[in-house]
Structures are given as C-alpha cells and as structure tokens.
Design brief:
By secondary structure, the chain is of the alpha/beta class. The protein is built from 14 helices and 12 strands. Helix 1 packs across helix 14, helix 7 crosses helix 12 and helix 10 packs across helix 13. It is elongated and about 65 Å long.
C-alpha cells in the first residue's frame, strides 16, 4: 500500500449517505494519493486499515483525518491532542441547521472545513470551501435494456416510481405514499417501490405506512423492499421511470443525483441541496411536507412518456456535465495537499 497520507473514518455501522460517499470517493482518490478508510460497513474494494493502525501511525509526518460525523471529529481531536498523532483535522459538513454548542466546539478544532452546499456553508460560523457531491457516472448510468434489469430484479412491468433510503418521518416516506395513492387508484399500471429499512425506533412508522396502503386498496401496487448494499443500488435506479425524494429535511441528499445519472427524472422537495442539483429540465421541485403539489408533479411526469424521455436525457447530461465524481475528488484532494503542505 502507498504511504498513508489521509484517513477517512466511517464510524457508523448503518448504511448512510456518509458511508456511500466514502465508498465512492476513497477508491478513486487512492489512485493518486495514499487515502484509506477505517471503520465498519465498507465493501472489500475500499482501501482500508484497522482503527488501531489508524490510531497508531508513526509521528514521522503529518496526515489528514477527514471526519464527516461528530464522533469522527471527536476521535480526530483525541488522536491529535491526547495521543499526539500528527493529524491535520478536516470536517465535511452537510447540515443545514444551526449546530449545537458541542458541534461548534468540535468544528472550531478543525484545520479546515468543507461544506457540501452553499446552504450548508451559511450555517457554519467559520470559513469553509463549498464542494458539491459528485457521482460515478460509469457505475450510475442508464441501462442498455431497462426491461432486462426489471426481469433480473423481479420487478413488475408498467410505470415504476421509486423512493429509496431509510424509512422515517424525516425522509417523508409517508408524504410519498400519500401522493402516490390517487395515481395508483387511477392507473393500475403504475407501481411504487419503497426501498430501504427503518431502524428499530421507526418500525411502527413503517407498519403504519403498510396499513395506510392496505386501507387505500393499493397494496398490490406498492412494494416495500429491503435495503440493498451500496454497490448494488444503481441497478434499482436503472429500473425506474421516475424517482421521488420527498424529504422533510436533508443535509445534502445524494439520491436525486444517483437517479439522474441513471437517466431517471426526479421529483424532489426544496430541502438540502436539491434546489442546487435538480434543474427544471430534469424534473420538478415541490415544497416539503405537502402532498398535493407532490402528487401533481408525480402524475404530470409519470403519465407523459414523451416528457419522461426528454427529462431523462437532460438529467443524465446535467450530472455528467456538472456532477462527475472525478471533479469532487480533485477538489477534495486539493484541500488534502494544502493541509499536508
């Protein structure tokens, strides 16, 4: 392995946007620098060292500790100031709300900060560099034959509308289903896919959603599917005709970019970075927590195949032109090099 220059911790066992970011970026950056991850829940192809090794690297040179969560910032502070490891501390902030005093204290200990959107930067009480997330446009791309993807995934024919991610109120899964129900009743060839899982805390929330669908009489057109590994999710986007991001709140939100990279139009709420990444020519933006505007936008796109085709072409081109993963990686590596120098 190349001499380690950067450690990207992933100190959470749950699949999340942070984990997905590390899985995408670390292998790409490792081709040019000594970048490794540490922590759990990472697939084998991600360059990886144990936490013990990351915590006991020699003091012969400076390295970068790139945190994306509070717990990771805390460990960086401990490693540097208590165990005297020579780490430059970098934090990426996706939050779009006022930080707690504890988080502000941690951020004050960082040598540099990245914000994942202009809106996130506005909530930081210090200077930062805005670097929007990118997408691997090779891994996420339109399928050669969508019907074949659907057969392989055992999905129904017709118009497929998807909503992916953890199932919890903040993610707006209930708003998505409420917006879909009138369309499902009107069009038996439309199907809704809810891909993801609830944590233990939100199991009753998911049960309530299943009951709501059953009471509406559309259970046969709604599939609640289990979470899939990060490296498999592109296939599921590729099977869709329309993707919906119904979040009530979001830090950045990668799923619209992933969908658009696969040539799938998007209906998203005006939270997170969605207004910065979803252009009018690739889908629709609607207010959060409002069923009727979302239902209208979904129906408009789902029921017009010509519109879907045009939005699909624009969506793919938009991501390729403005959100290629290589651009994000290069911008982050510039900060790494600045810190190391």
């Amino acid at each position: 392995m190349t001499e380690i220059e950067v450690v990207a911790p992933n100190l959470s066992r749950r699949l999340s946007g942070v984990t997905a970011t590390i899985v995408r970026l670390v292998p790409l950056m490792a081709k040019e620098m000594g970048v490794v991850a540490t922590g759990s829940g990472l697939p084998p192809h991600v360059p990886h060292v144990s936490f013990v090794r990351a915590a006991t690297l020699s003091r012969d040179r400076w390295r970068v500790w790139h945190a994306r969560r509070n717990i990771e910032m805390l460990f960086g502070v401990v490693l540097r100031h208590i165990f005297r490891r020579r780490y430059r501390l970098l934090f990426t902030s996706a939050s779009q709300r006022r930080h707690t005093g504890y988080t502000r204290w941690l951020i004050s200990k960082m040598d540099a900060v990245i914000a994942t959107s202009g809106k996130s930067a506005d909530y930081l009480e210090r200077s930062s560099t805005v670097i929007l997330h990118g997408i691997d446009t090779v891994a996420f791309r339109p399928p050669a034959h969508r019907e074949e993807v659907r057969r392989r995934l055992r999905l129904p024919e017709g118009i497929l509308v998807g909503c992916f991610g953890r199932i919890r109120p903040r993610k707006g899964t209930d708003v998505f289903l409420d917006a879909m129900i009138p369309l499902l009743k009107r069009r038996t060839d439309v199907h809704a896919l809810v891909l993801g899982r609830p944590t233990e805390k939100f199991r009753n929330y998911r049960k309530d959603l299943e009951n709501r669908v059953h009471e509406a009489g559309v259970s046969g057109q709604v599939s609640f599917l289990p979470e899939v590994p990060t490296h498999m999710v592109a296939d599921w986007y590729s099977a869709l005709d329309l993707y919906v991001a119904p979040q009530r709140w979001e830090g950045f939100g990668l799923t619209p970019l992933e969908a658009m990279a696969c040539g799938v139009p998007v209906v998203a709420t005006t939270v997170g970075a969605f207004p910065e990444i979803v252009p009018a020519g690739a889908g629709r933006l609607v207010p959060p927590n409002e069923v009727d505007p979302m239902a209208e936008a979904i129906s408009e796109i789902a029921e017009d195949s010509t519109m879907r085709a045009a939005l699909s072409r624009t969506a793919r081109k938009h991501v390729v032109d403005h959100f290629a993963l290589d651009g994000e990686a290069k911008a982050i590596m510039k900060i790494y090099r600045d810190l190391l120098n």
